Amino acid sequence: MGKVWKYGDGVNTDLIFAGKHTYTLREPEEIAARALEDLDPNFAAAARPGDVIVAGRNWGNGSSREQAVTCLKYKGITAVVAKSFGRIYFRNGINQGLLLITCPEAVDAAQSGDEIEIDLPNSVLRLNGRAFPFPPLSSTALGILEAGGLIPHIRKKLGITSTEAVTVGGGE
Amino acid sequence: MGYTFAEKALARAAGLPTAVAGQVVDARPDIALSHDNTAAIAKIFRAIGVERVAIPEKMAITLDHAAPAPTPRHALNHAEIREFVKEQGIKYLFEVGRGICHQVFSEEAIILPGQLILGSDSHTPHFGWMGAFGAGVGRSEMAAIWATGELWLRVPESIRVIVTGKLGRGVTSKDLCLAIIGRFGADGGLYKSVELSGPAIEAMSLESRMVIPNMMAEFGVKNACLPPDEKVFEYLAKRTSNSKSQTPKTKTEIESNAIHPDADARYENEYTVDADSVELTVACPHTVDNARPLREVKGTPIHQAFIGTCTNGRLEDIAAAAEIVQGKRVANGCRLLVIPASSEVMMDALRLGHLQTLMEAGAVIGTPGCGPCMGNHMGVLAPGEVCLSTANRNFRGRMGQTDAEIYLASPAVVAASAVAGMIADPREVGG
Question: Could you give the dihedral angle defined by the CA atoms of residues B82, B84, B87 and B89, in that order, rounded to the nearest 10 degrees?
Answer without folding.
Answer: -80
